[in-house]
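re: that complex we talked abt at group meeting.

here r the seqs, copy pasted straight from the sheet so there may be weird spacing, ignore it
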Amino acid sequence: MRRYAVLVIILLVGSHLPASLFAQEPTDSAAVLELVTVPPPAYFEVYDTPSDHGGNITLEWGLSPDDGDGRNNVTGYQILRGEGPTGYFEMVGEVLKGTTQFVDNTADEGTQYHYRIAAVARTGLSERIMAGPVVSRQQWFDRTRANLLVIAVLLVIAISYYIYKGAIGSDLYIRKIAGLEAVDEAVGRATEMGRSILFVPGIQDMDNVQTVAGIAILSNIAKRTATYETELDVPVSRSLTMSVGRETVKQAYLEAGRPDLYNDDIVHYITDEQFGYVAAVDGIMVRQKPAACFYLGAFFAESLILAETGSSIGAIQVAGTAMPTQLPFFVAACDYTLIGEELFAASAYLSKDKKMMGSLKGQDAGKAIAMIFIVVGVGVATLAAITGNDGLTAASEWLRRLFSLNF
Amino acid sequence: MEGQAILTTPLANTIGVWIGAFLTLMIFSFLYRDNPFYKFAEHLFVGISAAYWMTVAFWTTLIPNLFARLWPSHMGGVLPSAVGNEREWQYVIPLVLGLILLTRLVSRIAWFSRWAMAFVIGFAAGTNFTRYLQSDFVSQIQSTMVPLYEPGAGVGAAIGGIFSQLVIVGGVICAIIYFYFSKEHKGGFGKAARVGIWVLMAAFGASFGYTVMARISLLTGRMSYLIQWVSGANW
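got the structure back, here u go
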């Protein structure tokens, strides 16, 4: 009787123990059957994700025979990670059936990991198979961008070559750019009328190349205003642009031999707020009535407001930006507009500095290379499409890959 | 906390709506001509926004990106999440550059600030070089490498496809020719450049119409605000 009582107690206590205690060694015969019958992935391999900044490990596996085939009862895969081949493994991901790759982006750089994967069926898991060890490392060079390096080097060589030619005094021809010819006209007009010149270098900071280009043109305009003793007004919306603008204008006045005309108030800060800045510049325009307005830099919604106000006061207006959405407004409302690349060419064009012109010629070489590749690429792609020739198709694909961001 | 409670009262909302409506009308008065009301709104806007952005820059840039990285243990009162973090010594570099920029305030050593400016401009040029190389150069070339003819389409679709691809390829080539500065725009080269500027103008026309529509919707929104104010719906 006592033996039966002890047996009942053992059974009762056992039935209330957590199931996880038996997880490693299941005793349920049905579960054992499932473990045997759900086939695991065909293979499993792990490796450090190449060309990354570290912290990523790529896992690849072959589909379980029952994934999309066979009994077709696999619903996904369960991925576990541990820091040794034995011991605790934590789950780092679950993916749906048909998937053969997973990137663990939660790995710590330099830590050695082992991974386990199991196919998940409706009634249980397959045997877990393990791969590793693997360590995530940061790569210094992104091999998928090797093509960009080659293109960049070619461009740098072309630019350096023309800068060298310019430096040794070779004659470098740059065609006439109408918008820039108007700069002298605008400064001359303001001088004759005895009115000021307004220069707006956009609303972006000095980390924007359009602002840098605008400030470079400001240098040329400031030299002219210093020479002709014309008043210059440069309201800016960024503190750093103000500092750089002041240094630029100061240097220009110095080079023009009129440092006495310079004062810090020529370049003055208004506000970082886009429309607050526009409201203030509009106010300056209608009150001071400058004879010429220059808008050269990066602009957004304020472009038309500025240009319309400038037009209403009868100022000659020269604009330039590389913002495609704002160019139409400047084209519609200004006398001259520097479109995109012309803005960046302006500084070299106005200064006639041989080195800067050499840089411009080098960029033209880049454009010529681009045109050649476009024509060749289109020709090969068209021939490949018409003939279906494998060699041409492969050549066309290679050309497209050469100009992709994942070579 | 009391301030927050006050701002949520109906009275505060009503006052806010009235101020907003009056300031909107003051700004719109510029359409007639410059006047004292516009000047008042303009100066108010400039003053408040300049102070606002300075405060925002201090609390969202200087505190979390500089002070919290260099002195995390002292951030208990302002950025508790930073307390316990390790000090990141590399942030001494931007601190030094920032201090160098402030040398402008002392005329005797103001020239020193050019170093910090040169760093910012050099950084902008370097990082933008690869960015523009990818987005404006490489991607543009790849997107234009399209076959002029795709077999398998019907006659109409094939003709339409060829025309479409010719416009893309021809338009890109001609636009690049327009921006080619080393050769005078004469003869066939000049004609191609002329086509290039037509292509640009056609694109600008489409962009103009699209953007004007977006601006009209902004105007509609503001007008709706004023109409609600007149009718008392939003106060």
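couple things i noticed - The longest strand of chain A covers residues 112-121. Confidence is low (pLDDT under 50) at residues 11-35 of chain A.
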